[in-house]
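Aim 2, interim progress: modelling of the glycyl-adenosine-5'-phosphate-bound target.
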Amino acid sequence: MPTSFEPAANTGLFDAVVNLCKRRGFVFPSAEIYGGIRSTYDYGPLGALMLRNVREAWWRAMVQERDDVVPIDAAILTNPKVWEASGHLATFTDPLVDCRNCKERWRADQIEDACPNCGSKDLTEARPFNLMFKTYVGPVEADSSVAYLRPETAQGMFVNFLNVLTTMRRKPPFGIAQIGRAFRNEITPGNFVFRTREFELMELEFFVPPADSPRWHRYWCDERLAWYTRYGIASEKLRLRPHEKEELSHYSAGTTDVEFFFPWGWGELEGIANRTDFDLRAHQESSGTSLEYFDQPTGESYLPHVVEPAAGATRAMMAFLLAAYDEDEIGGERRAVLRLHPRLAPYQVAVLPLSKKDTLAPLSRDVLHRLQRYFMCELDETQSIGRRYRRQDEIGTPYCVTIDFESLEDRQVTVRDRDSTEQTRLPVEDLVAHLLGRLDI
Ligand code: GAP
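Predicted structure of the complex, ligand included:
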Protein backbone atom coordinates (compact mmCIF):
# COMPACT_ATOMS: atom_id res chain seq x y z
CA MET A 1 0.00 0.00 0.00
CA PRO A 2 1.48 3.39 -0.90
CA THR A 3 2.39 5.60 2.06
CA SER A 4 4.31 8.41 0.37
CA PHE A 5 2.53 11.69 -0.01
CA GLU A 6 3.06 14.95 -1.80
CA PRO A 7 3.39 17.65 0.88
CA ALA A 8 0.61 20.22 0.78
CA ALA A 9 3.33 22.89 0.52
CA ASN A 10 3.89 21.62 -3.06
CA THR A 11 0.35 20.83 -4.09
CA GLY A 12 -1.90 22.99 -1.93
CA LEU A 13 -4.39 21.74 0.65
CA PHE A 14 -7.16 20.92 -1.83
CA ASP A 15 -4.93 18.77 -4.06
CA ALA A 16 -3.30 17.09 -1.05
CA VAL A 17 -6.72 16.01 0.28
CA VAL A 18 -8.08 14.94 -3.13
CA ASN A 19 -4.90 12.96 -3.70
CA LEU A 20 -5.14 11.31 -0.28
CA CYS A 21 -8.80 10.44 -0.90
CA LYS A 22 -7.91 8.58 -4.09
CA ARG A 23 -4.68 6.98 -2.83
CA ARG A 24 -6.14 5.71 0.43
CA GLY A 25 -9.56 4.57 -0.76
CA PHE A 26 -11.88 7.35 0.40
CA VAL A 27 -13.26 8.54 -2.94
CA PHE A 28 -12.86 7.20 -6.48
CA PRO A 29 -14.09 8.68 -9.77
CA SER A 30 -17.22 6.69 -10.60
CA ALA A 31 -16.73 3.85 -13.10
CA GLU A 32 -13.10 4.87 -13.53
CA ILE A 33 -12.25 1.87 -15.73
CA TYR A 34 -14.71 3.32 -18.29
CA GLY A 35 -13.24 6.81 -18.06
CA GLY A 36 -15.63 7.91 -15.31
CA ILE A 37 -18.66 10.15 -15.71
CA ARG A 38 -18.25 13.88 -15.14
CA SER A 39 -18.14 14.90 -11.48
CA THR A 40 -19.60 11.64 -10.20
CA TYR A 41 -17.80 9.77 -7.44
CA ASP A 42 -17.90 6.45 -5.65
CA TYR A 43 -17.05 6.23 -1.98
CA GLY A 44 -14.35 3.63 -1.40
CA PRO A 45 -13.94 1.51 1.74
CA LEU A 46 -12.66 4.37 3.93
CA GLY A 47 -15.02 6.93 2.39
CA ALA A 48 -18.01 4.65 2.96
CA LEU A 49 -17.00 4.29 6.61
CA MET A 50 -16.44 8.01 7.07
CA LEU A 51 -19.64 9.05 5.28
CA ARG A 52 -21.53 6.66 7.52
CA ASN A 53 -19.89 8.31 10.55
CA VAL A 54 -20.90 11.79 9.32
CA ARG A 55 -24.50 10.57 9.02
CA GLU A 56 -24.32 8.96 12.47
CA ALA A 57 -22.92 12.15 14.02
CA TRP A 58 -25.80 14.15 12.52
CA TRP A 59 -28.33 11.53 13.57
CA ARG A 60 -26.97 11.50 17.11
CA ALA A 61 -27.37 15.28 17.46
CA MET A 62 -30.63 15.66 15.53
CA VAL A 63 -32.58 12.54 16.51
CA GLN A 64 -30.99 10.42 19.23
CA GLU A 65 -30.14 13.21 21.68
CA ARG A 66 -33.53 14.93 21.31
CA ASP A 67 -37.05 14.17 22.46
CA ASP A 68 -38.78 16.41 19.91
CA VAL A 69 -37.62 14.86 16.62
CA VAL A 70 -38.71 11.66 14.89
CA PRO A 71 -37.14 10.10 11.80
CA ILE A 72 -38.59 9.08 8.46
CA ASP A 73 -37.28 7.33 5.35
CA ALA A 74 -39.34 8.38 2.33
CA ALA A 75 -39.17 7.13 -1.26
CA ILE A 76 -36.87 8.78 -3.80
CA LEU A 77 -39.47 8.43 -6.56
CA THR A 78 -42.82 9.90 -5.69
CA ASN A 79 -46.01 11.23 -7.25
CA PRO A 80 -45.01 14.10 -9.63
CA LYS A 81 -47.86 16.17 -8.17
CA VAL A 82 -45.58 16.62 -5.14
CA TRP A 83 -43.08 18.56 -7.28
CA GLU A 84 -45.81 20.53 -9.00
CA ALA A 85 -47.28 21.63 -5.66
CA SER A 86 -43.90 22.32 -4.04
CA GLY A 87 -42.98 24.70 -6.87
CA HIS A 88 -39.98 22.65 -7.99
CA LEU A 89 -41.38 21.98 -11.47
CA ALA A 90 -41.88 25.69 -12.12
CA THR A 91 -39.03 27.30 -10.22
CA PHE A 92 -36.26 24.85 -9.27
CA THR A 93 -34.09 26.26 -12.04
CA ASP A 94 -30.69 27.78 -12.65
CA PRO A 95 -30.04 30.36 -15.40
CA LEU A 96 -28.30 28.59 -18.31
CA VAL A 97 -26.20 30.26 -21.03
CA ASP A 98 -24.50 28.66 -24.05
CA CYS A 99 -21.23 29.79 -25.52
CA ARG A 100 -21.91 30.04 -29.29
CA ASN A 101 -18.19 29.65 -29.99
CA CYS A 102 -17.14 26.48 -28.08
CA LYS A 103 -20.66 25.19 -27.24
CA GLU A 104 -19.90 24.90 -23.49
CA ARG A 105 -22.80 25.63 -21.14
CA TRP A 106 -22.57 27.71 -18.00
CA ARG A 107 -24.60 28.93 -15.06
CA ALA A 108 -25.10 32.60 -15.88
CA ASP A 109 -24.76 33.66 -12.25
CA GLN A 110 -21.36 31.92 -11.90
CA ILE A 111 -19.54 33.58 -14.80
CA GLU A 112 -18.68 37.14 -15.80
CA ASP A 113 -19.59 38.24 -19.34
CA ALA A 114 -17.17 35.83 -21.12
CA CYS A 115 -17.02 32.05 -21.53
CA PRO A 116 -14.55 30.64 -18.93
CA ASN A 117 -13.50 27.97 -21.47
CA CYS A 118 -12.63 29.98 -24.60
CA GLY A 119 -13.05 33.59 -23.51
CA SER A 120 -15.67 34.35 -26.18
CA LYS A 121 -18.31 36.92 -25.31
CA ASP A 122 -20.74 35.43 -27.82
CA LEU A 123 -23.11 33.98 -25.21
CA THR A 124 -26.83 33.25 -25.53
CA GLU A 125 -29.40 34.97 -23.32
CA ALA A 126 -29.83 33.20 -19.97
CA ARG A 127 -32.80 30.81 -19.86
CA PRO A 128 -34.16 28.80 -16.90
CA PHE A 129 -32.94 25.20 -16.75
CA ASN A 130 -34.82 22.83 -14.42
CA LEU A 131 -32.43 20.84 -12.24
CA MET A 132 -34.68 17.85 -11.64
CA PHE A 133 -33.77 14.51 -13.25
CA LYS A 134 -36.72 13.12 -15.18
CA THR A 135 -37.51 9.44 -15.60
CA TYR A 136 -40.48 7.18 -16.41
CA VAL A 137 -42.26 4.85 -14.05
CA GLY A 138 -43.26 1.56 -15.69
CA PRO A 139 -42.59 0.29 -19.19
CA VAL A 140 -44.29 3.11 -21.13
CA GLU A 141 -42.39 6.32 -21.80
CA ALA A 142 -45.38 8.65 -21.88
CA ASP A 143 -46.22 12.01 -20.31
CA SER A 144 -48.50 10.19 -17.91
CA SER A 145 -45.63 8.08 -16.54
CA VAL A 146 -43.11 10.89 -15.92
CA ALA A 147 -41.53 10.94 -12.48
CA TYR A 148 -38.58 12.80 -10.97
CA LEU A 149 -35.65 11.83 -8.78
CA ARG A 150 -36.04 13.93 -5.63
CA PRO A 151 -33.91 17.09 -5.58
CA GLU A 152 -34.42 17.39 -1.80
CA THR A 153 -35.64 14.97 0.86
CA ALA A 154 -37.80 17.65 2.48
CA GLN A 155 -40.96 17.01 0.46
CA GLY A 156 -41.13 13.41 1.73
CA MET A 157 -41.50 14.90 5.19
CA PHE A 158 -44.14 17.47 4.24
CA VAL A 159 -46.36 14.95 2.47
CA ASN A 160 -46.09 12.65 5.51
CA PHE A 161 -46.71 15.43 8.04
CA LEU A 162 -50.24 14.22 8.82
CA ASN A 163 -49.20 10.56 9.04
CA VAL A 164 -46.45 11.40 11.52
CA LEU A 165 -48.64 13.77 13.51
CA THR A 166 -51.32 11.16 14.04
CA THR A 167 -49.20 8.01 14.45
CA MET A 168 -46.62 9.59 16.77
CA ARG A 169 -48.99 11.82 18.83
CA ARG A 170 -46.84 14.91 18.28
CA LYS A 171 -47.62 18.60 18.64
CA PRO A 172 -45.59 21.59 17.44
CA PRO A 173 -42.80 22.28 18.13
CA PHE A 174 -41.53 18.97 16.79
CA GLY A 175 -39.38 17.84 13.91
CA ILE A 176 -39.08 15.15 11.27
CA ALA A 177 -35.56 14.17 10.25
CA GLN A 178 -34.30 12.31 7.23
CA ILE A 179 -31.03 11.37 5.55
CA GLY A 180 -30.94 10.26 1.94
CA ARG A 181 -29.74 10.67 -1.59
CA ALA A 182 -30.81 13.68 -3.63
CA PHE A 183 -30.28 14.37 -7.33
CA ARG A 184 -29.80 17.64 -9.18
CA ASN A 185 -28.77 18.01 -12.79
CA GLU A 186 -26.25 20.73 -11.90
CA ILE A 187 -25.04 22.74 -14.90
CA THR A 188 -21.52 23.10 -13.51
CA PRO A 189 -20.71 20.49 -10.87
CA GLY A 190 -17.16 20.56 -9.55
CA ASN A 191 -14.60 21.13 -6.82
CA PHE A 192 -14.42 17.39 -6.14
CA VAL A 193 -17.46 16.27 -4.07
CA PHE A 194 -18.46 19.86 -3.20
CA ARG A 195 -21.02 20.02 -6.02
CA THR A 196 -22.13 16.75 -7.61
CA ARG A 197 -25.26 15.62 -9.41
CA GLU A 198 -25.96 12.88 -6.87
CA PHE A 199 -25.29 13.70 -3.23
CA GLU A 200 -26.52 13.02 0.24
CA LEU A 201 -28.77 15.31 2.25
CA MET A 202 -29.38 15.40 6.00
CA GLU A 203 -32.53 17.42 6.60
CA LEU A 204 -34.73 18.38 9.51
CA GLU A 205 -38.17 19.90 9.06
CA PHE A 206 -39.04 21.51 12.38
CA PHE A 207 -42.75 22.39 12.68
CA VAL A 208 -43.53 25.29 15.02
CA PRO A 209 -46.42 27.64 15.90
CA PRO A 210 -46.19 30.48 13.31
CA ALA A 211 -45.29 33.22 15.80
CA ASP A 212 -42.34 31.17 17.11
CA SER A 213 -40.50 30.65 13.82
CA PRO A 214 -37.98 33.56 14.19
CA ARG A 215 -36.92 32.24 17.61
CA TRP A 216 -36.53 28.68 16.33
CA HIS A 217 -34.62 29.92 13.31
CA ARG A 218 -32.03 31.55 15.58
CA TYR A 219 -31.96 28.44 17.77
CA TRP A 220 -31.20 26.13 14.83
CA CYS A 221 -28.51 28.46 13.43
CA ASP A 222 -26.66 28.24 16.77
CA GLU A 223 -27.20 24.48 17.12
CA ARG A 224 -25.96 23.70 13.66
CA LEU A 225 -22.89 25.91 13.92
CA ALA A 226 -22.04 24.17 17.21
CA TRP A 227 -22.35 20.74 15.55
CA TYR A 228 -19.49 21.46 13.14
CA THR A 229 -17.22 22.68 15.95
CA ARG A 230 -18.20 19.71 18.12
CA TYR A 231 -16.86 17.45 15.37
CA GLY A 232 -13.57 19.25 15.01
CA ILE A 233 -13.82 22.25 12.67
CA ALA A 234 -12.15 25.32 14.22
CA SER A 235 -14.65 28.13 14.78
CA GLU A 236 -12.52 30.61 12.74
CA LYS A 237 -13.19 28.43 9.69
CA LEU A 238 -16.96 28.66 10.13
CA ARG A 239 -19.43 31.50 9.88
CA LEU A 240 -23.15 32.15 9.62
CA ARG A 241 -24.22 34.19 6.58
CA PRO A 242 -27.79 35.43 6.14
CA HIS A 243 -28.99 35.35 2.50
CA GLU A 244 -29.68 38.52 0.57
CA LYS A 245 -33.31 38.80 -0.57
CA GLU A 246 -32.41 37.99 -4.22
CA GLU A 247 -30.69 34.73 -3.22
CA LEU A 248 -33.64 33.22 -1.37
CA SER A 249 -35.15 29.96 -2.65
CA HIS A 250 -38.73 30.14 -3.86
CA TYR A 251 -40.02 28.72 -0.55
CA SER A 252 -37.94 30.73 1.91
CA ALA A 253 -38.77 33.84 3.93
CA GLY A 254 -35.23 33.89 5.33
CA THR A 255 -32.20 31.62 5.07
CA THR A 256 -28.89 31.64 6.90
CA ASP A 257 -26.04 29.51 5.61
CA VAL A 258 -23.41 27.83 7.72
CA GLU A 259 -20.27 28.45 5.67
CA PHE A 260 -16.83 26.85 5.81
CA PHE A 261 -13.60 28.42 4.63
CA PHE A 262 -12.80 26.09 1.70
CA PRO A 263 -9.41 26.40 -0.05
CA TRP A 264 -11.10 28.61 -2.68
CA GLY A 265 -12.93 30.79 -0.13
CA TRP A 266 -16.14 30.75 1.90
CA GLY A 267 -18.67 28.15 0.73
CA GLU A 268 -22.02 26.83 1.94
CA LEU A 269 -22.14 23.77 4.19
CA GLU A 270 -25.78 23.99 5.06
CA GLY A 271 -28.77 26.27 4.76
CA ILE A 272 -31.14 27.00 7.62
CA ALA A 273 -34.35 28.25 6.07
CA ASN A 274 -37.57 29.65 7.43
CA ARG A 275 -39.95 27.93 4.98
CA THR A 276 -43.01 29.41 6.73
CA ASP A 277 -46.16 27.40 5.89
CA PHE A 278 -45.26 27.51 2.17
CA ASP A 279 -45.02 23.74 1.69
CA LEU A 280 -47.84 22.56 3.96
CA ARG A 281 -50.15 25.18 2.43
CA ALA A 282 -49.18 24.17 -1.12
CA HIS A 283 -49.78 20.45 -0.41
CA GLN A 284 -53.01 21.20 1.41
CA GLU A 285 -54.33 23.19 -1.54
CA SER A 286 -53.08 20.75 -4.14
CA SER A 287 -54.19 17.52 -2.43
CA GLY A 288 -57.41 18.83 -0.92
CA THR A 289 -56.39 17.29 2.44
CA SER A 290 -56.34 19.55 5.48
CA LEU A 291 -52.84 19.61 6.98
CA GLU A 292 -53.77 21.93 9.85
CA TYR A 293 -52.87 21.13 13.41
CA PHE A 294 -55.72 21.37 15.93
CA ASP A 295 -54.47 22.85 19.18
CA GLN A 296 -56.76 21.48 21.90
CA PRO A 297 -56.00 24.04 24.68
CA THR A 298 -56.76 27.07 22.50
CA GLY A 299 -59.34 25.36 20.28
CA GLU A 300 -57.55 26.78 17.21
CA SER A 301 -56.39 25.08 14.03
CA TYR A 302 -53.33 26.35 12.19
CA LEU A 303 -50.74 25.40 9.61
CA PRO A 304 -47.39 25.16 11.41
CA HIS A 305 -44.41 27.08 10.08
CA VAL A 306 -41.25 25.17 9.28
CA VAL A 307 -37.63 25.89 10.15
CA GLU A 308 -35.35 23.68 8.08
CA PRO A 309 -31.65 22.99 8.70
CA ALA A 310 -30.55 21.20 5.49
CA ALA A 311 -26.98 19.91 5.31
CA GLY A 312 -25.04 18.01 2.66
CA ALA A 313 -23.40 14.88 4.12
CA THR A 314 -20.96 14.48 1.25
CA ARG A 315 -20.04 18.18 1.37
CA ALA A 316 -19.65 18.03 5.17
CA MET A 317 -17.34 15.03 4.81
CA MET A 318 -15.15 17.04 2.46
CA ALA A 319 -15.04 19.95 4.92
CA PHE A 320 -14.14 17.64 7.81
CA LEU A 321 -11.31 16.15 5.72
CA LEU A 322 -9.96 19.58 4.72
CA ALA A 323 -10.15 20.84 8.30
CA ALA A 324 -8.43 17.72 9.66
CA TYR A 325 -5.53 17.53 7.20
CA ASP A 326 -2.18 18.35 8.75
CA GLU A 327 1.50 17.62 8.28
CA ASP A 328 4.18 17.49 10.95
CA GLU A 329 7.48 15.81 11.74
CA ILE A 330 7.88 12.71 13.91
CA GLY A 331 11.40 11.50 14.72
CA GLY A 332 12.81 13.50 11.80
CA GLU A 333 10.26 12.10 9.31
CA ARG A 334 7.48 14.13 7.67
CA ARG A 335 4.03 12.69 8.08
CA ALA A 336 0.57 13.53 6.81
CA VAL A 337 -2.04 13.18 9.53
CA LEU A 338 -5.80 13.52 9.50
CA ARG A 339 -6.74 14.94 12.89
CA LEU A 340 -10.30 13.72 12.51
CA HIS A 341 -12.68 13.56 15.43
CA PRO A 342 -12.60 9.94 16.67
CA ARG A 343 -16.25 9.46 15.81
CA LEU A 344 -15.67 10.56 12.20
CA ALA A 345 -12.47 8.61 11.52
CA PRO A 346 -13.01 5.54 9.31
CA TYR A 347 -11.36 3.31 11.91
CA GLN A 348 -11.27 4.16 15.59
CA VAL A 349 -8.59 1.60 16.41
CA ALA A 350 -5.84 -0.22 14.51
CA VAL A 351 -4.53 -3.46 15.95
CA LEU A 352 -0.85 -3.90 15.12
CA PRO A 353 1.01 -7.09 16.11
CA LEU A 354 4.69 -6.17 16.27
CA SER A 355 5.61 -9.19 14.20
CA LYS A 356 3.80 -11.42 11.72
CA LYS A 357 5.04 -14.47 13.65
CA ASP A 358 2.30 -16.97 14.50
CA THR A 359 3.04 -16.68 18.21
CA LEU A 360 1.43 -13.21 18.36
CA ALA A 361 -1.60 -14.20 16.27
CA PRO A 362 -3.89 -15.65 19.00
CA LEU A 363 -3.51 -12.66 21.35
CA SER A 364 -3.84 -10.19 18.44
CA ARG A 365 -7.08 -11.88 17.34
CA ASP A 366 -8.34 -11.87 20.93
CA VAL A 367 -7.64 -8.12 21.22
CA LEU A 368 -9.24 -7.47 17.82
CA HIS A 369 -12.41 -9.36 18.69
CA ARG A 370 -12.75 -7.57 22.04
CA LEU A 371 -12.44 -4.18 20.31
CA GLN A 372 -14.64 -4.98 17.30
CA ARG A 373 -17.70 -5.15 19.54
CA TYR A 374 -17.33 -1.41 20.20
CA PHE A 375 -15.22 0.11 17.45
CA MET A 376 -14.49 -0.10 13.76
CA CYS A 377 -11.02 -1.69 13.72
CA GLU A 378 -8.34 -2.56 11.25
CA LEU A 379 -5.84 -5.37 11.75
CA ASP A 380 -2.58 -4.45 10.01
CA GLU A 381 0.30 -6.92 10.12
CA THR A 382 2.48 -5.85 7.23
CA GLN A 383 5.69 -3.76 7.14
CA SER A 384 7.56 -1.98 9.94
CA ILE A 385 5.65 -0.62 12.90
CA GLY A 386 6.77 2.92 11.98
CA ARG A 387 5.29 2.63 8.50
CA ARG A 388 2.10 1.19 9.92
CA TYR A 389 1.76 4.13 12.34
CA ARG A 390 2.24 6.52 9.39
CA ARG A 391 -0.44 4.71 7.40
CA GLN A 392 -2.94 4.95 10.26
CA ASP A 393 -2.05 8.63 10.90
CA GLU A 394 -2.74 9.43 7.28
CA ILE A 395 -6.25 7.96 7.41
CA GLY A 396 -7.02 9.52 10.78
CA THR A 397 -7.10 6.43 13.05
CA PRO A 398 -6.98 7.97 16.55
CA TYR A 399 -5.54 4.92 18.36
CA CYS A 400 -3.15 2.12 17.49
CA VAL A 401 -2.87 -0.91 19.79
CA THR A 402 0.45 -2.72 19.50
CA ILE A 403 0.92 -6.30 20.65
CA ASP A 404 4.54 -7.35 21.24
CA PHE A 405 6.29 -10.43 22.59
CA GLU A 406 6.17 -9.11 26.15
CA SER A 407 2.38 -8.95 25.80
CA LEU A 408 2.39 -12.77 25.76
CA GLU A 409 3.96 -12.74 29.23
CA ASP A 410 2.15 -9.85 30.95
CA ARG A 411 -1.07 -9.52 28.83
CA GLN A 412 -0.35 -5.80 28.45
CA VAL A 413 -0.49 -3.86 25.19
CA THR A 414 0.63 -0.42 24.05
CA VAL A 415 -1.89 2.23 23.01
CA ARG A 416 -0.48 4.97 20.80
CA ASP A 417 -2.24 8.30 20.38
CA ARG A 418 -2.37 9.67 16.82
CA ASP A 419 -2.03 13.36 17.70
CA SER A 420 0.50 13.34 20.56
CA THR A 421 2.12 10.01 19.50
CA GLU A 422 2.25 9.28 23.25
CA GLN A 423 2.26 5.61 24.18
CA THR A 424 0.54 4.04 27.19
CA ARG A 425 0.97 0.45 28.32
CA LEU A 426 -2.07 -1.18 29.88
CA PRO A 427 -3.70 -4.60 30.52
CA VAL A 428 -5.76 -6.13 27.69
CA GLU A 429 -8.69 -6.34 30.13
CA ASP A 430 -8.68 -2.52 30.58
CA LEU A 431 -8.40 -1.70 26.88
CA VAL A 432 -12.07 -1.27 25.97
CA ALA A 433 -12.84 0.96 28.98
CA HIS A 434 -9.69 3.03 28.33
CA LEU A 435 -10.57 3.64 24.68
CA LEU A 436 -14.28 4.18 25.29
CA GLY A 437 -13.35 6.91 27.79
CA ARG A 438 -11.36 8.66 25.08
CA LEU A 439 -13.63 8.11 22.11
CA ASP A 440 -17.02 8.76 23.63
CA ILE A 441 -18.24 12.32 23.79
N1 GAP B 1 -34.29 21.28 1.36
C1 GAP B 1 -33.44 22.42 1.28
C2 GAP B 1 -32.27 22.21 0.46
O1 GAP B 1 -32.14 21.20 -0.20
P1 GAP B 1 -30.09 23.40 -0.38
O2 GAP B 1 -29.41 24.62 0.17
O3 GAP B 1 -30.47 23.38 -1.81
O4 GAP B 1 -31.37 23.21 0.56
C3 GAP B 1 -28.82 21.84 1.25
O5 GAP B 1 -29.19 22.14 -0.07
C4 GAP B 1 -27.37 21.42 1.32
O6 GAP B 1 -27.14 20.32 0.44
C5 GAP B 1 -26.36 22.48 0.87
O7 GAP B 1 -26.06 23.37 1.91
C6 GAP B 1 -25.16 21.62 0.50
O8 GAP B 1 -24.43 21.24 1.66
C7 GAP B 1 -25.82 20.38 -0.06
N2 GAP B 1 -25.87 20.41 -1.54
C8 GAP B 1 -26.73 21.08 -2.32
N3 GAP B 1 -26.48 20.85 -3.62
C9 GAP B 1 -25.43 20.00 -3.66
C10 GAP B 1 -24.69 19.38 -4.70
N4 GAP B 1 -25.01 19.57 -5.99
N5 GAP B 1 -23.66 18.56 -4.39
C11 GAP B 1 -23.33 18.34 -3.08
N6 GAP B 1 -24.00 18.89 -2.05
C12 GAP B 1 -25.04 19.72 -2.32
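The longest helix spans residues 45-64. Residues 109 and 362 are 62 Å apart (CA to CA).
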